[in-house]
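Project standup — Tuesday

K.O.: blocked on the structure for the chain from last sprint. Re-posting the sequence here as requested.
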Amino acid sequence: MNNLTGFNFEHLPFLIVVVVLAFTLHEFSHAYAADRFGDPTPRSMGRVTLNPRSHLDLLGIILIAIVGFGWAKPVLIRSSFFKRPRLMSVIVSLVGPLSNLLLAFIGVFIAFLLSYFHAYDGMSIGVLRAVALFLQLHIMINLLLFIFNLLPLPPLDGYRILYEFFPYNLKVRMQVYEQYAFLIFLLFVLIDPVYERTLGPVLDLRWDVLALFNDFFTMIFGNQGQLAEIIVPLL
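H.V.: unblocked you, prediction finished:
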């Protein structure tokens, strides 16, 4: 059975921390943007907060640990409150994936920073392994979430962005098929031949994004900062 994140169960404590951070900031970003644009719904439901308990879905977290596929509680948005519904709805949908991209960017920055100041040299083997493992999972899972959530499949953010540009008649018809979204996810994620021909190649774009981050920070830190010390074990 395919596993999106590539972790093993001895890494579970690190995985849980990374996923909680990633899901919390993702959903908070949706809620905060909608709140700023005038929709009172997220605030009335207690979603404009960085408290993980307001955003996490227990079943979604459990499935992440088992099959590498899960979810958080979606933020209910009412675009009718927005002054410019289409534009603001697109922005609200986009900020979620961008929050995960930002988290991955920060993780790569920290990896370079630790290397630049030779912080690894002063760490014991156990601490070094823990830091490396956390940064590996943090960077890769957030890159996966960034790309995955931009897929144009309901109820992902990529679909919500695309949905705003559908003509009204198509929106009505697509609402009929949205109920089958979960079955489509299971097909893509759990069946290896389907995954390898559809979702797999798309999610492999995370390596291209990582390479861009690596090139960017290499220009800043030069050869004294190396992402390889953290990332090589994942390759």
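K.O.: great, moving the ticket to review. The radius of gyration is 19 Å. DSSP finds twelve helices and no strands in the chain.
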